[in-house]
Each structure stands twice: as structure tokens, then as C-alpha cells.
């Protein structure tokens, strides 16, 4: 009887030890499988980063430089078109800001890319060409509305990239370019919103579908007491100027 009990005790102990071992292995597996694994975290940053006299240049830095150039390739002609075809002064003013802003940024990005050895595109992307085609086909108030919303949505996406690059880059030229881009993009967002045609609900819905939902749902904030009416075009405030190119004249010099 005692032999049977001893055998059962040993057997039970063995099962417990086996279970604990399996649990420890399961807990250790994620750490082993992801720690220092190629293609993740710091390894990816180091593998895609090159050294320059202005500091390390990451893949994100190069993507940012390319997108600044791409933005100018379609927003500059879009701004010129808005100056001519906008039916309100606010829309024409927004077009003027786009032209001035992207002439300034294009000059900056061409200089930075040349110093860092980054090859830049010479044509807008397929999607950007489609946006220009949509604007070409629009007329009157429909043109104003499409211009304001298409260009404002594009700026919102670039704005998040600019912030990420400014916060993380280790390259002094890219850091200065990100600051100029931030000022210019914010200026463009403001004058586009001042047209009165920007659909903020659509922008929020697009952002919500593009971002994973939070793990813990937050309590809903109280909404407006009544549905807002149709937007009324307004004139942007005067005196809002872009940063002069000369403000970054010394950024091309190595530290």
C-alpha cells in the first residue's frame, strides 16, 4: 500500500515538475525569439542607418526627405491652380501659401539631399497624380471644397511624420529640415482650414480607421449640443508668414 502511495507521489511530483518546466520554457520563448532578432528594434535601425558628417542618417530620415520632395511636386502646382481657380479669396490665399511654402521647402530639401547623398524623385506618385486629376476636373465651389479637403488630408498625414522625425532623428540637417517643414505644414493646414470647406468629421473618421483602437476604451466625451451647420468660407488672418529661407542659412555647415 505504501509502495503504491509512494509511486503515486513520485508520479504526481514528476507531473508538477514537468508542468513548471513547460511553463518556464513558454515564458522564456518570447524573450529568446525576439531578443536581438534581425529585423526588429535597434538592429533594424543600425542596419538601415548610414554615417554622415552631420550625424547618422536613418531609413526614416531618408523617407522623410523623399516625402518633402514629393509633397512639393504636387502641392506646388495645386497651389498655383488654386490661385487662379479659387472662387473665394480664402481659397486663393491658401493656394498662394502652398506655392510660397513649397518653393521654400523644395529649395531646402534639394540642398539637404545633395549634402546627404539622397536621391530624390522628379515626378509625383500615382496617388498624387490622381489628386491633381481630380482637382483638374472640378469647377466652382466643388473645386474649392475638393482642393481644401484633399490637400488638408495630405498635410495631416505628413504632419505626423514630421513630428516623429523631429523627435527621433540624430542628423542635424534632417532636424533643421523637419523644423522648417513643421512650420510650413502647420501654416498650410491653418490657411486650408480658414477656407471654411474642410470636413473635420471626415478627417477624424479617416484617422480613426487608420489607427488601431486603444486597448482600454476611454469614457466618451460629451458631444456638441446641436449639429454644426454648413461651413462658411472665411478670410485667413493677415500677417501669418512663412519662415524665411535665410533663417536656416547656417544649417548646411557641419557641426
How would the blueprint of this fold be written?
Elements: H1 2-34, H2 41-47, H3 59-85, H4 89-116, H5 126-137, H6 140-168, H7 172-193, H8 200-210
Can you walk through the features of this model?
The structure is a single chain. With 255 residues, the chain is mostly helical. It has a domain at 57-209: Up-down Bundle (Ferritin). Helix content is 66%, strand content 0%. The protein contains 8 helices and no strands. Helix 3 (59-85) runs antiparallel to helix 6 (140-168), helix 5 packs antiparallel against helix 6 (140-168) and helix 6 (140-168) runs antiparallel to helix 7 (172-193). The protein is elongated, with a radius of gyration of 27 Å. The termini are far apart. The model is unreliable at 24-40, 212-240 and 243-255 (pLDDT under 50).
CATH architecture of the domain at 57-209: Up-down Bundle
Q: Could you tell me the mean pLDDT?
A: 77
User: What integer value in Å does the Rg equal?
Assistant: 27 Å
CATH topology of the domain at 57-209: Ferritin
Can you say what the CATH homologous superfamily of the domain at 57-209 is? Ferritin, core subunit, four-helix bundle
- Helix-strand pattern: HHHHHHHH
| Beta-strand share of residues | under 5%
For the largest beta-sheet, the strand count, sense and barrel status come to: none
What is the class of the domain at 57-209 in the CATH system?
A: Mainly Alpha
Q: How many H/I helices?
A: 8
Category from helices, strands and their pairing? mainly alpha
Distance between the termini: 85 Å
**Secondary structure: number of strands:** 0
Weakly predicted, low-confidence segments: 24-40, 212-240, 243-255
Please estimate the helix content.
55-70%
Please state the overall shape, judged from the principal axes of the Cα atoms.
Answer: elongated
Amino acid at each position: 500500500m505504501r509502495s503504491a502511495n509512494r509511486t503515486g507521489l513520485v508520479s504526481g511530483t514528476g507531473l508538477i515538475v514537468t508542468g513548471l518546466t513547460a511553463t518556464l520554457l513558454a515564458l522564456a520563448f518570447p524573450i529568446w525569439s525576439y531578443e536581438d532578432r534581425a529585423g526588429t528594434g535597434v538592429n533594424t535601425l543600425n542596419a538601415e542607418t548610414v554615417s554622415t558628417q552631420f550625424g547618422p542618417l536613418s531609413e526614416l530620415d531618408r523617407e522623410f526627405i523623399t516625402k518633402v520632395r514629393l509633397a512639393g511636386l504636387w502641392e506646388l502646382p495645386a497651389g498655383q491652380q488654386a490661385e487662379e481657380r479659387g472662387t473665394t479669396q480664402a481659397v486663393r490665399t491658401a493656394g498662394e501659401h502652398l506655392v510660397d511654402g513649397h518653393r521654400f521647402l523644395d529649395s531646402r530639401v534639394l540642398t539637404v539631399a545633395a549634402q546627404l547623398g539622397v536621391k530624390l524623385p522628379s515626378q509625383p506618385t500615382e496617388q498624387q497624380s490622381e489628386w491633381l486629376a481630380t482637382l483638374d476636373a472640378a469647377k466652382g465651389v466643388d473645386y474649392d471644397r475638393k482642393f481644401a479637403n484633399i490637400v488638408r488630408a495630405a498635410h495631416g498625414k505628413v504632419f505626423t511624420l514630421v513630428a516623429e522625425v523631429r523627435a527621433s532623428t540624430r542628423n542635424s540637417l534632417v532636424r533643421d529640415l523637419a523644423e522648417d517643414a513643421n512650420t510650413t505644414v502647420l501654416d498650410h493646414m491653418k490657411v486650408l482650414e480658414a477656407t471654411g470647406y474642410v470636413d473635420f468629421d471626415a478627417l477624424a473618421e479617416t484617422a480613426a480607421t487608420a489607427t488601431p483602437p486603444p486597448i482600454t476604451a476611454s469614457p466618451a466625451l460629451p458631444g456638441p449640443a446641436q449639429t454644426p451647420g454648413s461651413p462658411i468660407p472665411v478670410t485667413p488672418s493677415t500677417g501669418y508668414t512663412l519662415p524665411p529661407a535665410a533663417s536656416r542659412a547656417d544649417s548646411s555647415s557641419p557641426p
